[in-house]
Design goal:
alpha+beta; 5-stranded mixed β-sheet; 3-stranded mixed β-sheet
Length: 153
């Protein structure tokens, strides 16, 4: 397919095919639905310990354990928002009606900050993004104390 494209388009075509044909990564135990809305973010944790009908949503920051994979599913309730954490090389779009998938495995503990970009429209600077990465023990304690009680069995 790509061989039929003009030379300047061939590399992009090959990269797109590589992405489309790549096997999906094994689904991690933790998934977080990241939802943008003017002007803020919410994070709905989908944990193996919670039933699917339990709402485990927090307004932020996003908190994850170091060294463990998490799948982020990004969407929006209103307009397109950009979700970016430059220090981790993550930039994705939250688009109404669609899910953009980002698999993340932060290796080191710390606070990481990002922001939405101008694509979100006027007021986008009021949509800061914060990720706190904790060691496994501190993360388990955070789950017990900061997530709604019905999320933890």
């Amino acid at each position: 397919i790509c061989a039929q494209k003009p030379a300047p388009m061939r590399a992009g075509c090959e990269k797109a095919l590589e992405i489309l044909l790549r096997p999906m990564a094994e689904e991690p135990a933790r998934t977080v639905l990241v939802t943008g809305r003017q002007f803020g973010w919410s994070y709905r944790y989908r944990l193996p310990t919670a039933s699917s009908d339990v709402d485990c949503t927090i307004p932020g920051p996003l908190v994850l354990p170091a060294g463990e994979p998490t799948r982020l599913q990004l969407t929006s309730d209103d307009v397109i928002h950009e979700w970016s954490l430059p220090d981790l090389g993550i930039q994705s779009s939250a688009i109404p009606g669609l899910l953009d998938i980002v698999d993340i495995k932060p290796e080191k503990e710390g606070h990481f900050r990002g922001e939405a970009t101008a694509i979100s429209g006027k007021g986008f600077r009021e949509m800061p993004i914060e990720l706190r990465v904790l060691d496994a023990q501190a993360y388990a304690a955070w789950e017990r104390t900061d997530l709604p009680k019905q999320c933890i069995r």
